[in-house]
Model the fold of this input.
Amino acid sequence: MTDIVEPSHRREIRSFVRREGRMTDAQKRAMDELWPCYGIAAPTEAVDLAQLFGRTAPCVFEIGFGMGDYLLSRVVAEPERDFIGVEVHRPGVGRLMHRAQAAGARNLRVVSDDAVVVLRQGIADGALDEIVIQFPDPWHKARHHKRRLIQPAFAQLAVCKLKPGGLLSLATDWQHYAEHMLEVLNAAPGLCNLSADGGYVPRPATRLKTKFETRGERLGHAVFDLSFRRL
Done:
């Protein structure tokens, strides 16, 4: 989903692997026909959100929306908000656009590129009301932990892009990664954990339980929700 710069070497470390997969005919048609309506190229400068959506409204930014079930559920349920979803998996992008059109959604835009680059370059500071990260790759092997998205540098970036009072909402089904998230984000200047004890929060009503999560529960994976507010 993202590139993270190592300060010591100035080298980009990706926290995602591009797995293209097979696209259905409907997904291919969506990519060809619906991209002009929903898709935007990876921006190289801050996007004017009011111009992009044709109105001024609260904006939610989701990193790595997968097949788009959660994102679409919020797009449909919250027409008063605008949503930007970033995902490198093109079949998921095509599926989301196909379903968004069927739902008549107009408050959605998608980018198929590196989410942190999009966030860093394409979103103005203080522009977002919420950043959502659902089940990011845990990179569970110790030698791969440096690839995890949630790092101090990312926390600083999120703080910059959120409005005061904006939310950083996360979920993972890997306990070790959840503990890592808590350690990083509890220490991040400008963020306040909404859990009274500095730990996890109950599953938000807005978080749709996806097939991915249901499968994890069958395997005995607990799900950990985190919520932070920008001060």
Summary: The domain at 17-230 is CATH 3.40.50.150 (Rossmann fold). Confidence is low (pLDDT under 50) at residues 1-11. The CA atoms of residues 135 and 212 lie 9 Å apart. DSSP finds nine helices and nine strands in the chain.
